[in-house]
Amino acid sequence: MFRATIDADLLKDSVESLSVLVDEARFRISPEGIAVRAVDPANVAMVSLDLAASAFDEFSASDCEIGMDLTKLTDILSLIDKTDKVLIELDDMSQKLSIQIAGLSYTLSLLDPSTMRADPRIPQLELPAEVIMNGKDLRRAVKASEKISDHMLFGIDGEIFYMEAEGDTDRVRVEMSRDQLIDLKPDDVHSLFSLDYLADIVKPVARSNEVLLEFGMDFPIKISTTFANGALKVGYLLAPRIESD
């Protein structure tokens, strides 16, 4: 059993946070809320999403799992206004999802969770460096780097956090001191990452005023943030690009 009402804006943010990496996902629903763990087809990046029951205007659920085609859901949500309320209800008999918005009613066929990839296990990593920054600043640096390269370096030098990309002839470097950041836990580290993935990941997190970056020396980077006063938590884990000597 699952029935819930939520702001369209928050639902759109939740779906986009997932769809930048995967086309389908398994939603684990419980009385506490909704949780999703998924990895992209190339096993390079992972996304985790936790949407608490408190994020909904109405939330009534028992433990269950549903598989969702995110492309179909995104298409539906693209037709509605962000100020709308969305009523979602699971039909246990047909295993279809009813979505009602502003007089429109959709019936969405679900995927069988048993046929989908198992949820990834999130590795426990000790990442020594932490940076908290505005999401818009992160996206600006990524967009600038995209113009000249296909990879981007994150690093810390003393009290300076830097993001750098270098192409065949051009180079861009963004430096931010502790005063320009929300917080900084420095360490002498750097790691290189694919801009194809970073460009997708920063789209949803750019709307957040506080984005946490955790990384080390040639380790994966964790990028996480929250929305709706912490009711929606989104996190990404991106594998590094190791350069051969």
Question: How is this structure best described in words?
Answer:
By secondary structure, this protein is an alpha+beta fold. The chain has two domains: 2-113, DNA Polymerase III, subunit A, domain 2 (DNA Polymerase III, Chain A, domain 2), CATH 3.10.150; 129-238, Box (Proliferating Cell Nuclear Antigen), CATH 3.70.10. The chain is built from four helices and 18 strands. The chain has helices at residues 8-19, 70-77, 135-146, 195-205; strands at 2-7, 24-30, 33-39, 45-52, 58-61, 64-69, 85-91, 96-101, 104-109, 129-133, 151-157, 160-166, 171-177, 183-185, 190-194, 211-215, 221-227, 232-238. Strands 6-2-3-4-18-17-16-10-14 form a nine-stranded antiparallel β-sheet. A five-stranded antiparallel β-sheet has the order 5-1-7-8-9. Strands 13-12-11-15 form a four-stranded antiparallel β-sheet. A hairpin with a 4-residue loop joins strand 17 (221-227) and strand 18 (232-238). Helix 1 (8-19) packs antiparallel against helix 2 and helix 3 packs antiparallel against helix 4. The model has no long low-confidence stretch (mean pLDDT 93).
